[in-house]
Specification:
single chain, alpha+beta, five-stranded mixed beta sheet
């Protein structure tokens, strides 16, 4: 349990950090990209307004993002076309990488694309109207794009490095963070185990005294009630001790190969006569020759818990069934029973919690304290399996257990 809590804490922290870093890195690079595009568009607009050239900054003050050196640092070319897209003029005097032929190809490509503004290769282009003609201005943005890509790579690597560093730091300090919880949980389990053993002695004495009184006074209502409640308390104590032991760190059960089919059949058979006595329909469908590597005693206890639970809550003339099948890489054990009252779906995830009862008003009728399914879950978890409850039609309970065929 502590390992599960620790894993969830680390996972939640890492997911939160990942989302935070992703938002920060994405935000910075999106803003950087938009700034580059905005500066390029501003430059293009200035060139287009001045008919394919920079204005004279010696007479006019340059815009905020420009200097007097910008016209000499910028590489651009323009193509002037008439209404029929026939080329009137080509100016490539401000760039060496593009000749007249390439300028014509770029102009034809952007006209075909149908966009008035955008990127083609490493060039940002802009359409501008001049009387009855159209000028397409291209600005070389290779350096700006390379700068953006470099910043993107550096920021991503730094974020990844920080993410991994945080993971190892969190992994180290999680032991310290979880230490008080671990100690408290271990003390709780130790207390349950010790208290359970201490309670067993007075219970045994009470049961022995009741037996002696029955021999001397004969059976009566009060002695029967004492015997009944003593047995319930003894059963609760045994379940708590069993659950505490199974959850202890390092407590491993011996796992051996055995016939899963035979164990389930033998355990379920003991409930057949009891179901008939109570007027309940009992169905059993066990696939033969299913082999399983696990703890045979624990699996018997699991079947007994599930069958006892089904028998308690099935009404008279109700139906109880147990099914065991081999499904590809899993072994499925399904226990089904009809119920007297409708089952709320929001209660199903909580049926494996300790002391949870869906119908607390039936506690005195059925006996038990709602801890049996918690023990069942602990047994399944110890074997590396999964257990869950469902209500197929709202008036029946189906508990499904799935074990991996490979040894856990």
């Amino acid at each position: 349990m502590i390992t599960r809590i620790k894993t969830r804490f680390i996972l939640l922290s890492m997911v939160t950090l990942f989302v935070l870093l992703a938002v920060i890195v994405a935000g910075m690079n999106v803003m950087n990209y938009k700034t580059i595009v905005a500066d390029a568009d501003s430059t293009l607009d200035l060139i287009a307004t001045n008919k394919g050239a920079f204005p004279d900054f010696s007479r006019n003050k340059p815009p905020k993002h420009m200097t007097k050196e910008t016209p000499y640092e910028s590489r651009y070319f323009s193509v002037l076309m008439d209404e029929n897209h026939q080329i009137i003029q080509i100016d490539t005097s401000r760039i060496k990488a593009v000749d007249t032929k390439k300028a014509v190809e770029y102009a034809a490509a952007v006209v075909k694309a149908g966009k008035k503004q955008g990127f083609i290769g490493g060039y940002r282009f802009l359409f501008s109207s001049e009387c009855d003609s159209t000028r397409i201005v291209f600005l070389d943005c290779d350096k700006r794009i390379a700068s953006f890509q470099t910043f993107l790579g550096i920021s991503s690597c730094m974020a990844l490095g920080g993410y991994l560093a945080f993971f190892f730091v969190l992994l180290f300090f999680s032991k310290i963070i979880m230490k008080p919880v671990t100690e408290s949980y271990e003390k709780q389990k130790q207390f349950i185990t010790n208290a359970g053993h201490e309670i067993k002695t007075p219970l045994a004495i009470i049961q022995a005294d009741v037996d002696v009184l029955e021999m001397e006074l004969g059976e009566n209502e009060w002695l029967n009630d004492i015997q009944k409640q003593t047995n319930r308390l003894a059963a609760l104590t045994n379940d708590l001790i069993c659950l505490s032991r199974m959850e202890e760190a390092g407590n491993s059960m011996p796992m051996l190969e055995f016939s899963f089919s035979d164990v389930v059949s033998e355990s379920a058979a003991s409930f057949h006569a009891l179901a008939q006595t109570q007027g309940k329909v009992f169905c059993c469908d066990i696939q033969p020759m299913i082999s399983f590597v696990g703890n045979e005693t624990a699996i018997r206890q699991l079947v007994n818990i599930l069958m006892d639970n089904a028998l308690k809550y099935a009404p008279q003339n109700g139906t109880i069934s147990i099914t065991a099948q081999k499904q590809e890489r899993l072994i499925a054990l399904i226990v089904f029973n009809t119920t007297e009252n409708p089952i709320p779906k929001d209660c199903l995830p909580m049926v494996f919690e300790r002391f949870y009862r869906m119908d607390s008003s039936r506690s005195t009728q059925t006996g038990g304290y709602g801890i049996g399914l918690s023990v069942a879950k602990a047994i399944v978890t110890a074997h590396g399996g999964n257990i869950y409850a469902s209500a197929p039609d709202g008036r029946s309970m189906e508990i499904t257990v799935q074990f991996p065929i490979a040894p856990h």
